[in-house]
Amino acid sequence: MRIRTLAAGLLVGALALTACGKEGTPSSGGTGDSGANSAATPSYTVAQNVDLPGSATFAKIKGKGGLTIGVKDDQPGLGQKDPTTGKYAGFDIEIAKLVAAGLGYDESKITYQTVDSGAREAAIANGTVDYYVGTYTITDKRKQQVSFAGPYFQAGQGLLVRKDDNSITGKDTLKGKKVCSVTGSTPIQRVRDQGLTEPGNIVEFQKYSQCVEKLNTKEVDAVTTDDAILKGFAAQDPDTLKVVGEPFSTEPYGIGLNKDDSVLRNKIDDLLQAALDDGTWQKIYDATLGKSGSTATKPTIQRY
Ligand code: GLU
């Protein structure tokens, strides 16, 4: 009995060593990629003695000794929670960590809080999250309630369909089709505004993974949102799903934060700019979204 316990302990120890023995954060995708696609996520230098006079959010973070970051939990490659380990991984999660490090906090001080699209403005405005990183398009309408650092990425609206469906090839082939998207998102608004399908054919959920489930069970014919999100779902299930057509919008992703906290916004813009300039942004991309082979152009920070 004791020997068995000892052996089990040694095995766990060995596994832990394998997982943590490399420099930086262990690559979290768990996709088993090798060779050119096995780029690991970078490690971030935690800034010392950061002070941001005039930032109410930063004062609150300091008081708590840690930060709460709003994210998505079901978007492969961007923000996804591993149901077994409870760990979050993806491009957005790395951006969240990079900013936290620049503010003086390493990952152990981060509490991730899943906030779906329809609940973002409220979660930011009422302080449930200190900032939000989750495929959050910068729009003038949202700027009435929150502010945005960035953009740190640019996506475009696309379509996900079943692989054997050749009847949907782009946004102008959706009439008469059931189209699914998420409450409070820019893509569902665009489907409505442009009348891409009949109002009765628009199906809406809180999460994109729920739409993808309905696509698989043939209760809907297409899922629409940012191509970056849809590519992640297609990559998980390449035998049954595909992304079709050309992107039909521009979706610049911002980090959402309190509307009045321009001090924090400027600081995050500085941190993003530095990551774009010193190669860290590219490393993050290569270790997450870029694993599918896609390339991305660097965004230009829009200060205001
Ligand atoms: N980027 C779009 C938005 O902010 C769609 C993705 C999402 O819902 O997060 O609404």
TrEMBL record:
PROSITE patterns, per database record: PROKAR_LIPOPROTEIN
Keyword Lyase assigned: no
Species this chain originates from: Amycolatopsis sacchari
Domain of life from the UniProt record: Bacteria
Keywords assigned: Signal, Transport
Any single GO CC term annotated in Swiss-Prot or TrEMBL for this entry: outer membrane-bounded periplasmic space
Protein name per the record: Glutamate transport system substrate-binding protein
Residues spanning the signal sequence: 1-21
Family the UniProt entry places it in: Belongs to the bacterial solute-binding protein 3 family.
The Solute-binding protein family 3/N-terminal domain, residue ranges: 66-292
Protein's GO biological process: amino acid transport
